[in-house]
Amino acid sequence: MTSITGKVPVRCPVCGAEHEASVVQSINAHTDPEVKARLLAGELNVLACHCGKRTPLAATIVFVDLARLFYCQVVPDASGVAKAIAAFRDSGTKGTQRIVRTQNELIEKIKILDANLEDWAIEMIKVGLDEPVVLFDRADEAELHFVIVDRIVRGLAVPRATYSELVGREPPSELVIDRTWALSELPN
Ligand SMILES: [Zn+2]
User: Fold this and answer.
1) How far is the CA of 55 from the centre of ligand 1 (A)?
2) What spacing in Å lies between the alpha carbon of 49 and ligand 1's midpoint?
3) How remote is the CA of residue 57 from the centroid of ligand 1, in Å?
4) Centre of ligand 1 from the C-alpha of residue 19, in Å
5) 100 CA to middle of ligand 1, Å?
6) Which of 21, 79, 100, 117 is deepest in the core (most CB within 10 A)?
7) Are 122 and 105 in contact (CB under 8 A)?
8) Do 12 and 46 meet the contact criterion of CB atoms below 8 Å apart?
9) Residue 131 — φ and ψ, nearest 5°?
10) Which 8-state DSSP code applies to residue 80?
């Protein structure tokens, strides 16, 4: 177990109870598979209060998959993004480096990685789906599956051919690969 865990004081937004919550700040995909599983299940960094309220905790998290040379950092504070990008660049680390803002975005990046897909091509497909909040869910041989998050959660599938057409191009050098990035890449 090499995951790094910190303690943060948190007040329950419903009943006001004070807690010392444990926050996982570093996850290694290979040495912490059980932590990764809890992350993907949405059970990591959640304050479960005795009143029944479950509150997601915003935390700086570094996720590392050394076999895939994939590094992703969650930077909840917008003012920290530029510093995080500079730190990644200065580290000289080879492989794929990503900065995201939320734990949910990290979960999506890991699902894309585990499906052997490129996140930048997925972001470009998502923009084409013309829905405000779309998350990659899983892939099978024929299709890529997304969930559309609105008042009800709906599923949507895209043929793999759509992905194959996109992924032939040169991978981007940016570290923040999201909807804004994808919009900037598409012809007007
Ligand atoms: Zn409570």
Assistant:
1) 9
2) 5
3) 14
4) 9
5) 28
6) 100
7) no
8) no
9) -125, 145
10) G
Measured between alpha carbons, how far is 39 from 33 in angstroms, rounded to an integer? Answer: 10
Cα(54) to ligand 1 centroid in Å equals 8
* CA 49/CA 55 separation, integer angstroms: 8
Print pLDDT tens along the chain (188 aa): 457 788 889 999 999 999 999 899 999 999 999 999 999 998 999 999 999 999 989 889 999 999 999 999 999 999 999 999 999 889 888 899 999 999 999 999 999 999 999 999 999 999 988 888 899 999 999 999 999 887 777 889 999 999 999 898 889 999 999 988 998 887 75
**CA 53 – ligand 1 centroid, Å:** 5
Please give the model's pTM, rounded to 2 decimal places: 0.88
- Using alpha carbons only, give the angle 58, 60, 62 rounded to the nearest 5 degrees: 135
- Return the bridge partners of 99, or none: 73
Residue type for 156, please?
L
